[in-house]
Amino acid sequence: MRPTLVVANGPAVFVTGGDGPRTSGPFLFAEDPSEAALRFESMGRAELPERLGPILREIPPTSRLLAVPPRLGRAISEWTGREVEAPTVQELRRGRSALPALDPEVERRFFLALGRLRLERALRAPEEVLITLAREEERVERSVGREARAAESFVVVPNSPAERHLPTWDRARQVLGELASELRRNLEDEARRLVPNLAAVVGPRTAARLVAAAGGVAPLARMPSARIQLLGSRRRPSPERGPRFGILYRADRVLDVPLGRRGAYARSLAALAAIAVRADASTHRLVSPGLVSRRDRRVEDLRRARP
Amino acid sequence: MRVGRAYRPADGSPRLLEVVHATRRELWTETVGELPPVYGERWSDAGGRKLRLFEPGRSKLAAAVAQGWSGDLPAPGERWLYLGAATGTTASHLADLLGVDGRLYAVERSVRPFARLLTLAERWPNLRPILADARDPTDYSSLVPPVDGLYADIAQPDQLDIVQRNAELFLRGEGSRFLLALKTASMGRHLSPPEHRRNAEASLREVAALAPSVSLEPFHKGHFMIGGRWGRSSSVPVRAGSTPTKPRVRHRGRRER
Fold first, then answer.
1. Which helix (H) or strand (E) segment is A15 a member of?
2. Which end of chain A, N or C, is surrounded by fewer C-beta atoms within 10 Å?
3. Which domain holds residue A55?
4. CATH of the domain at A144
5. Are residues A32 and A86 in the same domain?
6. For residue range A208-219, what is the model confidence (pLDDT) as tens digits?
7. How big is the A-B interface in CB pairs under 8 Å?
8. What is the DSSP code string of B216-246?
9. Do A62 and A76 fall into the same domain?
């Protein structure tokens, strides 16, 4: 006897194979696309279409029962009390080639709803919040600097038409400054929460920027320290005088090191940052006090051993 | 629109048009979505057909055509799976080639590019965006039906493996098409780009019949377009392929944000 395959296909579930009619379905998860997307994502016993029940009960106990994806299999197993297997690639290919096409408009609206749902869930992760904040903060910081420089070099004759908008511009700069400090405060809090060790070693804002540049805490933790050192640098590493800093140039205590020794400091700091972020990504132990004292000792050494 | 620009169908797809100038050739695709353009590209209206400029410097698929790709291109009405769609620059053009009756299932893993892909899909009727990792095809096997073709532009060290696993699960069968924009820089510097190309071709020849691959330089450094028909017993029909376009590389400038 051919095995019976229960397969979710976008907004609907189909039953195919077995001895019954070739394919039954589509059983829509829900009429409303957002509701269908929600049910598709969880796909527990409660989310399955009710109309599927009678069909499942008709499947003879001798027929092997297959389901895709695995969470659909678990839900059916819970519903019917039967053992549900995962199909092989061949069985899945054969089963799916028998499926009729869905209404294009239903399918399209389902995909858009599912995309929105997955996007929203992904963006809600603490890591993504930190990355979003870091990008925003960097952009706003840049425009604060640009406006400040523009204001410095702005000259105008009093009572001229060019002077009239000055009060509004002053207000805009002030609001922009407020936005920048608000963002920065938020960003630093998030960084201290998500990557406490890294934030202590290089400073919370630099820590956030490193995470954003790497695309997450785990990718940053996988990087060698040489890569962390040059993350965000604009020039290319080369056998000649390559870059020594990227994002790390804005780290804590860089400015305390004499100019000629900053490259050496960058190497040490990157090594400490690598240890810190690995602790943040895996063990979650507090290692920063030791790292910070090593960092400070290094700063003192570099200041004393001035060439 | 300037009068007198002579659009004519390009070789390989009825929805791909070309304008031949004295020294160079422009490629245009007939759009299925609504204007305004997707990423600031030029567009034009040729006797009621809305066209968008398909620039080799922006898209590896366009670069392949410009370099004389003689293998298959997506045909109207087909279903294709696109791995690594990013913000949808090339995906929008590939969807154009498929026409309104075709389907393009576009997989992208990164969150921010996907947000833009999703906005694009709202006005591109045949585009189906999926936020998922192409390394794990079972994750979206309940979203993508069997497809006629697979396009992959995934800059990963294991890009060949990813393509193979997706092809086995999603391609309709023997003779289904696939295109792979091979980025050799992601596969390590221990081999030169041509060596990577040879290795990739050798391993794909075991599972597919390959059309002659083309180098995408100077548009995309260290990239090759490899493609053909899936299945060892497939054969690749011979198409003349056009003569390579004289390259005109545009500097893309700094992108905003």
1. strand A12-17
2. C
3. 4-122
4. 1.10.246.90
5. yes
6. 999 999 999 999
7. 64
8. -TTTSTTEEEEEEEESTT--PPP---PPPPP
9. yes
Q: Are residues A65 and A158 in the same domain?
A: no
Nearest chain A residue (CA) to B257? A139
Fold of B60-230: Rossmann fold (3.40.50)
C-alpha separations of B72 from B62, B65, B151 in Å: 13, 10, 11
Q: Which among A43, A114, A120 is the top mutation candidate for probing chain B, defined by the most B β-carbons within 10 Å of its own β-carbon?
A: A114
Interface check for A165 against chain B (CB to CB < 8 A): the answer is no
**DSSP per-residue codes, A70-123:** HHHHHHHHHHH----BPPPHHHHHHHHHTPPPPPHHHHHHHHHHHHHHHHHHHH
CA distance B257 to A32: 36
Inform me whether the C-beta atom of residue B138 falls under 8 Å from chain A C-beta atoms.
yes
If asked whether residues A226 and A256 sit together in one domain, one would say: yes
Residues A249 and A212 reside in one and the same domain: yes
Considering only CB atoms, A68 lies closest to which of B122, B131, B142, namely B142
Helix axes A126-152, A204-214, angle to 10 degrees: 110
Q: Which chain B residues are closer than 8 Å to A128 by Cβ?
A: 111
Q: Are residues A155 and A117 both part of a single domain?
A: no
Show which of A122, A155, A188 is a domain's final residue: A122
Q: What is the ipTM of this complex?
A: 0.89
Q: Would you state the structure tokens that stand for residue B179, as one six-digit string? A: 């295109």
Q: Are A287 and A276 in contact (CB under 8 A)?
A: yes
> pLDDT tens, position by position, for chain B (257 residues)?
444 578 888 888 999 999 988 888 899 999 998 888 899 999 998 888 899 999 999 999 999 999 999 999 999 999 999 999 999 999 999 999 999 999 999 999 999 999 999 999 999 999 999 999 999 998 899 999 999 999 999 999 999 999 999 999 999 988 999 999 999 999 988 999 999 999 999 999 999 999 999 999 999 999 999 999 998 887 887 676 566 665 555 555 555 44
Which residue among A93, A111, A119 sits closest to B128, beta carbon to beta carbon?
A111
Residue that terminates a domain, selected from A103, A122, A141: A122
Say whether both A129 and A104 belong to one domain.
no
Angle at A169 between CA A168 and CA A170, to 5 degrees: 90
Residues of A in contact with B172 (CB under 8 A): 97
Q: How far is B147 from chain A (nearest CA, A)?
A: 10
* Same domain, yes or no: A65 and A211: no
Domain ranges for chain B, please list them: 8-53, 60-230
Please count the other Cβ atoms lying within 10 Å of the Cβ belonging to residue A237. Answer: 13
Task: Judge: B111–A7 Cβ closer than 8 Å, yes or no.
Answer: no
Number of structural domains found in chain A: 2
